[in-house]
Amino acid sequence: MHIEPPKWTFIFIALSVAGFLVQMTTNFWGYFAFFPAFAFESPWMFVTSIFLHADIEHLFFNMLILFFLGINLERSIGKKAFMTLFFVSGIVGNLGYLITASNPFTPAIGASGAIYGIIGALATLAPMMMVFIGMIPMPMILVAVFWGFMDFAGLFAPSGIAHGAHLGGMFVGITFGLYIRWKIHLRVNRY
Known about the structure:
Elements: H1 8-25, H2 45-48, H3 56-77, H4 79-100, H5 112-125, E1 130-133, E2 136-139, H6 140-154, H7 163-190
Antiparallel strand pairs: 1-2
């Protein structure tokens, strides 16, 4: 079986870097950030905000996680499924922020919802896959449970973090992973 090299992981990283450069060099980024108050007047914000980031640290850590986890998942599920998961997780993540935002005029930006979708899918499809958090190796399922718990708790403590976006993305990833497992189960039991 031929495994194709990942493509969308690198495209999403490039789009995020390009979006960040536009943010640093123009004042137009506000038209592309996700503002809950204007979400349905400007529906493109559900997608464009995914490729913007608050600062270089936000961009770096999101892209680092996307690089390592995205390559792994994209190789496992294929390019089309990975691209779909990324966008749907990001969009549903923005819906999660829309529902949980304390101020509808505070924008949300970043690929975190989409990345949490990747985390949720990997935790469902490869729960014992070891990843490093700092210098500590942990199984993917434990990482997902820990981050999910932290984001759930964060919903009740106002901060500059879009916890609702993270949870929305993770919900999509887990649902997607369960769907893939179900399809594999049907295929295996058919033969």
